[in-house]
Amino acid sequence: MSYISHYSCSKKAFISICCLLSLSFMTRVYSATPIINIDIRNHLFIPSEITIPENTKVKLIIHNYDEEDEEFESYELNREKVIIGKRKGTIFIGPLPAGEYPFFGEFFPKTAQGKVIVE
Amino acid sequence: MLLSSVIIILREVLEAALLFSILIALAKHSAVGNHWILWSLALGLVGAIIYGMNLSNISEWFDGVGQEVANAFIQLFIYAVLVIYMGVQVYFKDQAMTSKYWFLVLMIVITSLAMTREGAEILLYFFSATRRENHYVSVLIGMIIGASIGISVGFLFYYLLVNLRSLWALRIGLALLILVSAGMVSQASLLLIQADWLPAQMPLWDTSTFLSEKTAMGQLMYALIGYEATPTAIQASLYLFGLLFPVGIIALVNSKSIAYNKIAETK
Amino acid sequence: MTLVILSSLTLMIFLSALNGYRDSMAKAEQLFDSELIDKARLLSLSFSTQTINTQSNQSLVQHKISAITENDVFAFQVWHKNTLLLKSAFLPDTAIANFKTGFQDNNVLHRRWRIYGLYNKTNNLWILTAERMDLRYILAENIIMGTILPVVIMVPILGLMIWIIVSYGLLPLRKLSSALSDKRADDLSSLAVEKQPIELTQVVISINDLFRRLKVSFLREKRFASDAAHELRTPISAIKIHLHNLSKVIAEDDQSFSQLKQAVDRMGHLIEQILNLNRTSPEQYSKKFTTIDVYELAQNIVVREYAQFDIKNQQIALEGEHAIVQGDVFSLDILLHNLLSNASKYTPEGGSIMVTVSGNKTQTQLQVQDSGPGVPEEKYERLFDRFYRLGGDRHASGTTGCGLGLAIVKQIADLHHAEIVLAKADNSSGLCVRIIFPKEKLI
After folding, report:
1. pTM (2 d.p.)
2. Which of A32, B128, C205, C430 sees the fewest Cβ atoms within 10 Å?
3. Alpha-carbon distance C357 to C320, whole Å?
């Protein structure tokens, strides 16, 4: 019992350190994060292929120009976000090892397709 | 469109249905009746409509990551209430909780909030996907199939739990709740990473070849134990914390409860 | 139970339907893909059999192709060494995909296309055939939906059928259980065996056998008690007459004679009480309740038994109001009689007894208080046991009794679903017996 509570205490400390780290990360790395814009028009991602460098965090800004909402989804990137119609949304991806990471719009998966190529 | 609508609805319904079925099964052992379910469903529906309608504004918060942050905090809030609920459940173990209204409030908060989050996405999907005439039938059928599968799994789960012996039902129910709640912490951490509120890291490992999140089994595991094929270090450690914290609380409460019972007996 | 079957079935049916859907869609994709390949080959063939550079031919084809509208599913481009030879009219002049053999997906003109690339080595030609993904997907889905839709419609029908079949199958069991629960306590008649499924017939037969044996033993016991009591009555009466005759011969103050008389009286009382106990037992009793005014009944009994109190110089008072009870006159008479004679017995000479009747909307209360020594609280429960007498056989009051009085009271109260409350009397150390008849709950 004492072992468990001790353990969770150390976890708590770890979490607060994580949070502090993340704050410092935000302020320091924010300006350096590359930004890539992707449009959604007519249930298509434009461009449908983007290339980002390896081991780098990237900020995707997705503009949805359709009336309908769309959900950016990628199992490979582990990302999921609803982009409301006529609005934009921000998603941070990476750092990632080199490879291809397909993504799709879950609401219109047959047309809204694309992939992130990490080199 | 059918398959994707099945997957979207199934994913959302499954999470809510599992939470519901575990809580309903545990509630049966606390003899609190079933009135609260109706309250949860009604509140959850209202919540989902309000949340879904305002999601476009919420998304704009915090430089376009409001959606992630809001969802993450809803998840963490549900997690916190779940931990309190589990503690209470263990503390009063075999006692009927008929007169304890706040206990019902805990359950209603948990389930209706879960429904709010999951329901909002279903509503958004429904109104987006059916705006085009030619998709109407397949989307609707997909939603029916997805919802039916999710609810059926939930019901079978409930049936399994209810037919276990009382002690085992409590143990297994709690174990499942701990897993589900740890999954919530992991989801919340993923959302915060996506919003850049937690530092991004390289994934620790990749088990997608072993069990992909795309498969039905992967979805079930995602809903049940918060399975992730490619977690980062922060996510994994938060998951572990999410798992151990309620275990610690339950152990603590259990020892207190036993001591309390002993005092009561000697008196 | 129905729900479990239904949800497992739903799960299985929908999962297999989904599997079928996915397979069919994959097959349809293959079909469309092979069509794209065929078209590419056809184009390639038609170009290799004709001379590529015939301008007139090319313009003719292009003219015909331009009739294709933008909503068409199919499009193509034919390239020769980076120069576009032929294309669908609506396509741009740039390549719609990379020159690569095999399939690729690409965005062209705000649409998603499935594109097949074919390289003709002999003429150095690149042929790109393309199909709109959204349209061909809808096409495929519309065909497959025809097979999925009936399944989805069938599931609720199946659910209804399962529900009907299961409830129909369980009907005999439900009927049996309701037949058993509807049985009155004293009804030991056999259950009907007709139209039972085989599985239940044996159960019904066994239950009926049990009922029969129970009935026989019940009857035997009942008959024995009442027969014995009844049979004893006659000799007791005879003995009483002989005693009366003897009293004329023997001196009044002969001690053994008066003791003999007392003993015979006591025995007569005991037999009378056993008969009462038997008559009012729930198994024996057929409920024929009438509306009874308890106050009036109490009045009659007090008047009838007045002599008993007078002998001991006791005061008896009846207070209260008219109050109605659904009950049986005969047994309520016994109840009041027993309560009053108990009160009289345990109250010393010159004491007082108070009978109170009160009623409101929900209940009617009958209360008898005496001014005797009372009963210690811990003995209350035991008072209702048969043949229990406070302080053993010889009570301090020196009165005789058989210990059945309150047992009979209890039995009659139960018969009326009434509650008995024992307490200390208001103004003395005596016992207060309160009988509360509920008004609504009466059956």
Report:
1. 0.69
2. A32
3. 5
